[in-house]
Design brief:
With 113 residues, this protein is of the alpha+beta class. The chain has one domain. It has a three-stranded mixed sheet, covered by helices on one side. Strands 4-5 form a two-stranded antiparallel sheet. Helix 1 crosses helix 3. The longest helix has 14 residues.
Length: 113
């Protein structure tokens, strides 16, 4: 089985589609390779989107619909363990605006990495 890798533009398109399908606010605090690609311009690809928070039922449903609509089978994974610096929340940055995704204690509609 070949590991599928996703470009930053694929991740952005996928997350925008997830946002369109959300029926309730959701929290996604992206960490790892996806955060590096989306918020910091890393040129490497990644095989998934890691998040620091549990994935709600509404978010899981929106992800499922986004996979079907975009054809991008991007795994959204709750990272149970992550090594982050003290006060990492102060370093979070908004990578782009959405309408239904609320993260990082910031205003509604911001995806943070």
């Amino acid at each position: 089985m070949t590991l599928v890798r996703f470009e930053p533009d694929d991740l952005r398109a996928f997350l925008r589609c997830v946002d369109r399908h959300l029926t309730a606010n959701a929290r996604i605090e992206i960490i790892g390779g996806s955060a590096a690609a989306l918020a910091h311009g890393a040129q490497s690809t990644t095989s998934d989107i890691d998040t620091f928070h549990q994935i709600s039922d509404a978010l899981a449903h929106a992800v499922s619909l986004a996979r079907a609509e975009t054809g991008l089978d991007v795994p959204l994974v709750h990272a149970a363990i992550a090594d982050v610096p003290y006060n990492y929340q102060d370093r979070l940055s908004a990578s782009y605006r959405t309408s239904n995704v609320s993260k990082c204690g910031r205003s509604r509609g911001t995806i943070c990495c």
